[in-house]
Design goal:
heterodimer; A: 338 residues; mainly alpha; MetI-like fold; 2 domains; two-stranded antiparallel sheet; 13 helices; B: 353 residues; 14 helices; 0% strand; flat
Chain lengths: 338, 353
């Protein structure tokens, strides 16, 4: 067979010992003289490089079009409160979008993180094993629902159901100004925040669940042996162990909330201004603004939208990078598949 | 011996405990109280009485437990009920989403709906269907899959089987970063170079390129995890027989992990099938059947839902179509998900243990 013919010229190069220096490894890898090996190595390395090229290209092309747009902008890109890229004197800024994006994401995080941590604890420490498995499965399915369906549900089911809550908040907390409501359709940043919370719940839950599951059994048993209640075990041994994991999980969720497009575009009735009230429709988000303004945008308008998209890209890059850095410090798990 | 550590056994070391049925009794009591108050105050929403009942339950169980068992036990009970509340809170939207989609979706979902397009049907009148959208989705997702599966698997092979240097580290890092790219940014990127700079028109292929960017990192990640599960002994056995490395990968490593890789690819497909934003920017949507993904606007299922929702001015017929399309989309995505998990279980890599 062909194995016997190839035996003679097979160099024992492939299972590389880990302690070889990089240069030696490179030589050894190249030492694979067969054309098949070289082609295969080239192909797979090329794919890796292709991925890097795409990332670089995204940054370069977005920056290029953004520079075109910003150079024509007559007002400050960061602090302007309007979006008129097609006017004779183009004037557009991301202040309102940044406000809306940050506010809706904060609302989403405030709602989602405690609930997600609760569910993760429920699955790992409270529920019977069978039930825990079933719930994990259901939560994973929740992650698979397309965002446009969330949007449709949010606009046609969730928003009408929130009228009562809005009225209640306005009655009792309207004096704060933040929760004042004029009585319009409840399609505000607050509703968007609730919807985003539902959408990012699965990823935060599944990453937290993995961390909590890895909490050292010995610590927990030691705490139990000292007479701790179940809650004390969790507070003393599980949560300190999982804190960094929960933080990075939350940041992964934050990254999704910041970039969510269609659900926000469907639910929010945008209004290009900043007001104190979260319940009245005002503000917008980066992604929502791009989706809503795109169809009627001219070339200049598209470049302006690309400029705002670049800002979103940088923000999500920073948030995700930070989350990954925290995860990388504990290399045992990864949330990328979640 | 075992009796001394048995917690259930009453002993002098242990304080008084509430009987096992106590939480149930408190729950029944608080639900009754919640219902009673809402009936008295004329509240009609079921969410309100449930909220009231939940608050009563937490307060009452804390109070009773604090009196009988002490504060530490009471805190434990509160934590338990809060964790249960968190779980129930998450179930409500899921059940509501599924229920509403199925209930409103089945109204117009039939053979006619699946086999006709929206050509010559205005948005406000009933009729029409999603045939053109299904076609567009299948073509766009198919092209994206064809591009990203080979590249993604090869990249994962590079990372696991070859990469040890700087390049591999950089690729690993950027794959992680790429998983976080918002879909709208991927769409804007393809828009900026394909449509604005190369001056191409909208097409299914442009959308497929953006979907590729979203799909690649998912495939790389899951394939990487699967390749790492392949025991090293298998590779060493093959290499020791003099089989070249590339044939070892093709004939030993990949077949061993094919189940997991398939699962990853199917989950990635399920993820991009629901993407609307890139399609909105690059394919534009259409009401007519366009079988050519390389020329002219095309429809897609998520895009169809958005258009039926946004362009119809609140007409019931359009909303019905949107729900029916949403039901079709969810069914497709869920079947892919379930099948993927089934394959994962069925073809779990034999790690020799």
């Amino acid at each position: 067979m062909d194995i016997s013919t190839k035996k003679s010229d097979a160099p024992p190069s492939s299972p590389l010992p880990a302690d070889l220096s990089a240069a030696e490894q490179k030589r050894a890898a190249r030492g694979a003289t067969r054309p098949g090996d070289r082609v295969f190595l080239g192909l797979s390395r090329g794919s890796g490089i292709f991925l890097l090229v795409i990332m670089a290209a995204i940054a370069v092309f977005l920056t290029y079009r953004s520079v075109i747009a910003i150079s024509k902008n007559e007002s400050n890109f960061l602090t302007t409160f309007e979006w008129n890229p097609t006017a004779a004197e183009p004037s557009f800024g991301i202040a309102v979008l940044a406000y809306g994006t940050v506010v809706s994401s904060i609302i989403a995080m405030v709602i989602a993180v405690p609930i997600a941590v609760g569910i993760a604890l429920f699955i790992t420490h409270y529920a019977p094993r069978r039930l825990g498995g079933a719930i994990s499965f259901v939560i994973d399915l929740l992650a698979a629902v397309p965002s446009i369906v969330y949007g449709l549900w949010g606009a046609l089911v969730l928003a009408p159901h929130l009228v009562g809550l809005y009225g209640w908040l306005d009655d009792y907390f309207g004096w704060t100004g933040i929760l004042e409501w004029q009585g319009g359709a409840p399609r505000s940043l607050f509703t968007v925040g609730i919807l985003l919370a539902i959408m990012i719940l699965p990823i935060i839950t599944s990453v937290s669940r993995e961390v909590f599951r890895q909490a050292p059994q010995m610590h927990q048993e030691a705490a139990l042996a000292l007479g701790a209640t179940r809650w004390e075990v969790i507070r003393m041994s599980v949560i300190p162990f999982g804190r960094s994991g929960v933080i990075s999980a939350s940041m992964l969720g934050l990254g999704r909330a910041l970039g969510e497009t269609m659900a926000v575009a469907t639910v929010l009735s945008p209004n290009f201004k900043i007001e104190a009230s979260l319940l009245d429709p005002n503000g917008g988000t980066f992604a929502q603004n791009i989706a809503s303004k795109f169809s009627e945008a001219s070339e200049m308008g598209r470049d302006a939208l690309i400029a705002s998209g670049l800002v979103l890209f940088i923000i999500t890059l920073l948030v995700n990078g930070a989350a990954r850095a925290i995860i990388a410090r504990r290399a045992e798990y990864s949330g990328a598949n979640a | 011996m075992s009796q001394t550590v048995n917690v259930e056994r009453p002993s002098t070391l242990q304080g008084a405990r509430l009987p096992k049925w106590a939480p149930l009794a408190v729950a029944a009591g608080s639900i009754a109280l919640g219902l009673g108050i809402s009936a008295a105050a004329g509240l009609d929403s079921s969410i309100q009485w449930a909220l009231l009942a939940a608050i009563f339950f937490v307060l009452a169980s804390y109070g009773i437990a604090a009196r009988v068992e002490g504060r530490r036990q009471a805190k434990d009970r509160v934590a338990t009920s809060l964790v249960w509340v968190a779980f129930l809170l998450a179930v409500i939207p899921l059940v509501s989403l599924m229920w509403e989609t199925v209930e409103r979706g089945v109204k117009v979902l039939d053979g006619y709906f699946l086999s006709h397009s929206m050509g010559l049907v205005t948005d406000t009148e009933p009729g029409g269907g999603i045939y053109h959208a299904i076609l567009g989705t299948l073509e766009q997702v198919g092209i994206a899959t064809l591009i990203s599966v080979p590249i993604g698997i090869l990249t994962a092979i590079y990372l696991v089987e070859y990469g040890r240097g700087r390049l591999a580290q950089a690729v690993t890092f950027f794959v992680d970063v790429m998983t976080g790219i918002p879909s709208i940014v991927a769409g804007l990127f393809v828009l900026s170079f394909w449509i604005l700079i190369l001056d191409m028109g909208p097409s299914g292929f442009a959308g497929a390129m953006a979907l590729t960017i979203l799909m690649l990192p998912v495939i790389v990640r899951s394939t990487e995890e699967m390749l790492k599960l392949v025991p090293n002994e298998l590779r060493e056995a093959s290499l020791a027989l003099g089989v070249p490395k590339w044939r070892t990968i093709m004939k030993v490593v990949l077949p061993t992990s094919i189940g997991g890789i398939t699962t990853g690819v199917m989950l990635a497909i399920a993820r991009i099938t629901g993407e609307t934003a890139p399609v909105l920017l690059l394919v534009w949507g259409s009401t007519f059947i366009n079988t050519d993904p390389f020329d002219g606007p095309q429809a897609s299922l998520p895009m169809y839902i958005y258009q039926q929702y946004a362009n119809s001015g609140g007409s019931g017929a359009a909303y019905d179509r949107a729900w029916a399309a949403a039901l079709t989309l969810i069914a497709f995505v869920m079947i892919l998900n379930l099948a993927a998990r089934g394959i994962a279980r069925w073809k779990a890599p034999k790690t020799g243990r």
